[in-house]
């Protein structure tokens, strides 16, 4: 697929794939509530024969806890269909350490459980001379735990982090994430860890392997983790507009994080996705047309160009055409000014 375009599908995506690798926060739920239409769409995915698998950088919670939360939201889930960054870290360690090796775990119960279940001896002190350090987010992690990690890493232990997300979304805003805690150990030792979570490819492959999928599709709301990770893994990515990355973010997306498909929410898995094709100086998707040539860029409506800074209430096909037009201009060496794109006050009109 050409980097500056979107893929198309003449059949609903769920019929083209045998598994759907779903991000959680911003895709399936927001805090304690399910995202609108999520439960119904996931039920339809399962009914169509594709396996839902939940892929999260949250390393603190065991799969059973994640599954219980989803089930309480009306999305019945087996823990065996949950892939956490802690499980991915344990899988990474299995490839380099012998069974029974000692691993110092810094993080929540999910990390300790994943590493222990992988056949390693879990310790919490550098005095145990661990073979490796596995670090994941846990709200209790503080100076003492970070210092034990620093002692062990400085002594030569292999260093693995579940993810390098600098921040963690909470009800009060963006809190300190695992990447910020990892930075303290890096600053003390000069050693950078290998990451097992998104946007690394491994966690997606591990998730697909849970259900022996050969044709998975990944779904996310963050371009820099979910969609960049899908690209790194060679898996088609569907971006939904129910979470972090919105229209302006899509327009400025680099080739390494662009999705294959766009949808307003998870119902996009149940829909066909029209092709975006070249149309003169612009691009067309269905009846929607967009142009990005030099300073002239935006959506053509009733024969008139509506400039990007004046766009509002985009249709999904308009957004598809506009993304491809802007991406193609950037890839051809004549990008639209990033400051102008980032200021686009555009929303997408959702399906009824």
From TrEMBL:
One of its GO terms (cellular component) is cytoplasm. The keyword Hydrolase applies. It holds the Pfam family Hydrolase_like. GO terms for molecular function: phosphatase activity. InterPro entries: HAD-like_sf (IPR036412), HAD-SF_hydro_IIA (IPR006357), HAD_sf (IPR023214). This is HAD family hydrolase. Keywords: Hydrolase.
């Amino acid at each position: 697929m050409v980097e500056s375009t979107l893929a198309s599908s003449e059949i609903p995506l769920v019929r083209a794939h045998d598994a759907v690798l779903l991000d959680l926060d911003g895709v399936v739920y927001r805090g304690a509530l399910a995202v609108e239409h999520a439960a119904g769409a996931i039920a339809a995915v399962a009914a169509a024969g594709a396996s839902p698998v939940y892929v999260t950088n949250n390393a603190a919670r065991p799969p059973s806890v994640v599954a219980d939360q989803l089930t309480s939201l009306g999305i019945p889930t087996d823990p065996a269909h949950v892939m956490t960054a802690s499980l991915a870290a344990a899988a990474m360690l299995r490839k380099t350490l012998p069974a029974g090796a000692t691993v110092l775990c810094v993080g929540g119960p999910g990390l300790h459980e994943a590493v222990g279940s992988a056949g390693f001896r879990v310790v919490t002190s550098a005095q145990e001379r661990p073979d490796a350090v596995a670090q994941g987010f846990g709200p209790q992690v503080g100076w003492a735990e970070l210092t034990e990690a620093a002692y062990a890493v400085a002594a030569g232990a292999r260093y693995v982090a579940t993810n390098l997300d600098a921040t963690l979304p909470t009800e009060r805003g963006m809190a300190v994430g695992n990447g910020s805690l990892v930075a303290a150990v890096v600053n003390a030792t000069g050693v950078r860890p290998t990451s097992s979570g998104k946007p690394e490819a491994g966690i997606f492959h591990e998730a697909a392997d849970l259900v022996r999928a050969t044709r998975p599709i990944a779904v996310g709301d963050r371009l820099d983790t979910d969609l960049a990770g899908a690209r790194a893994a060679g898996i088609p990515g569907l971006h939904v507009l129910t979470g972090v990355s919105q229209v302006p973010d899509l327009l400025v997306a680099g080739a390494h994080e662009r999705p294959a498909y766009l949808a307003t929410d998870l119902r996009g898995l149940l829909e066909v996705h029209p092709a975006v094709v070249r149309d003169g100086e612009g691009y067309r998707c269905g009846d929607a047309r967009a142009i990005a040539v030099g300073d002239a860029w935006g959506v053509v409506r009733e024969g008139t160009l509506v400039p990007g800074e004046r766009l509002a209430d985009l249709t999904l096909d308009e957004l598809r055409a506009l993304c491809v037009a802007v991406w193609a201009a950037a890839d051809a060496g004549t990008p639209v000014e990033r400051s102008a794109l980032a200021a686009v006050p555009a929303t997408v009109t959702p399906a009824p």
